[in-house]
Design brief:
334 residues, alpha/beta, 57% helix, binds NADPH dihydro-nicotinamide-adenine-dinucleotide phosphate, binds magnesium ion, NADP
């Protein structure tokens, strides 16, 4: 098992007298910037005016907001929390010119460093602090006096203090309250991409859709199919999240538990596992990264088409109707 680091392993004093420039104020940016500020650290937010609404939001939250270039100029630590596909361009145009000796370049995901889209100069630290949670949870847990687990990694240690700076930053956003794991840019990037593709996002959505379609094709009401294949997912996942597979299996009926063992391996077959290995190989050899970057350079033809198609699907139509009956499901999400 890897070592886990806590509050006592990190020293906020490493960041005293330093200015932290948080680039972006989206899911991660709004959470990390506010947590750092509440930890008594000197934070500025770097944004582009008029892209969306982040600038106004950050100002309304009492942040000091400026352009990315200005924030890069002022910041000793530069945390890049822009969309992954935009980071390389913004870095080249607005950050690199101000990345002077001894500064720290930071990320919450290793994509652009690992796949060589950003190549920092040798005379800066390059580190990662990655909360293992969506941004709104990073903020919510912090305000409740807790924190979400996080990862730290050091790609380049010019000052000899890169790791201590990363730990201090992790403490500033609340991650050491829960626990921090040390990893590498490569391991974080590859496991993160694999998890979201094969299991968390790609795997789950296709599993839900396949179950829903099977019931609807067989003539059952879409509303029933929605409840069984989508709505109840959260109830089951909450149990797994709280107490592992065992608690979930303890909590459901014996009938459900028996069906779980009997049928699960018929759904996720050896063929599926083999395909997971292929997916992992395409992450490892850069095939996925190349396709994602090309997609973005050609103005997202695939994303635009598939988003529309998926939005207009029956499961989304029925879902909107059913969720309207449960107003308590609505929570603030960035
Ligand atoms: P979001 O898309 O939520 O936010 C991006 C932010 O960047 C917005 O504030 C946006 O402003 C701003 N922005 C967009 N384009 C520009 C530009 N050209 N110049 C300046 N600012 C710009 O990103 P996430 O928080 O989801 O992701 C940030 C990083 O964190 C990524 O590396 C991601 O992989 C990583 N990460 C994300 C997690 C998550 O929970 N979402 C979890 C762990 C890591 P505007 O709104 O005005 O467009
Ligand atoms: Mg990810
Ligand atoms: Mg049932």
């Amino acid at each position: 098992m890897v070592q886990v680091f806590h509050d006592q392993d990190a020293d906020l004093a490493m960041l005293k007298g330093k200015k932290i420039a948080v680039m972006g104020y989206g899911s991660q940016g709004h959470a990390q910037a506010q947590n750092l500020k509440d930890s008594g650290l000197d934070v500025v937010v770097g944004l582009a005016k008029g892209i969306d609404d982040s600038w106004e939001k950050a100002e309304a939250d009492g942040m000091t907001v400026m352009t990315v270039a200005e924030a890069a100029n002022q910041g000793d630590l530069i945390q890049i929390l822009l969309p992954d596909e935009l980071q390389a361009r913004v870095y080249a145009e607005e950050i690199a010119p101000y990345l002077t000796e001894g500064k720290a370049l930071m990320f919450s995901h290793g994509f652009n460093i690992h796949f060589g889209q950003i190549v920092p100069p040798a005379n800066v630290d390059v580190i990662m602090v990655a909360p293992k949670s969506p941004g709104h949870m990073v903020r919510q847990m912090f305000t409740e006096g807790a924190g979400v687990p996080g990862l730290v990694a050091v790609q380049q240690d010019y000052t000899g203090k890169a790791r201590d700076i990363a730990m201090a930053y992790a403490k500033g956003i609340g991650c050491t309250r829960a626990g921090v794991f040390e990893t590498t840019f490569q391991e974080e990037t590859e496991t993160d991409l694999f998890g979201e593709q094969a299991v968390l996002c790609g795997g789950v959505t296709e599993l839900i859709k396949a179950g829903f379609d099977t019931l609807v094709e067989a003539g059952y009401a879409p509303e029933m199919a929605y409840f069984e294949c989508l709505h109840e997912m959260k109830l089951i996942v909450d149990l797994i999240n709280e107490g592992g597979l065992s608690l979930m299996r303890y909590s459901v009926s014996n009938t459900a538990e028996y069906g779980d063992y009997m049928v699960g391996p018929r759904i996720i077959t050896e063929e599926t596992r083999e395909e997971m290995r292929n997916v992992l190989a395409e992450i490892q050899d850069g095939t996925f990264a190349k396709e994602f970057l090309l997609e973005n350079q050609t103005n997202k033809p695939f994303m635009n088409a598939i988003r529309k198609q998926e939005k207009e699907s029956l499961i989304e139509e029925v879902g909107a109707e059913i969720r309207a009956l449960m107003p308590w499901l609505k929570k603030t999400r960035r």
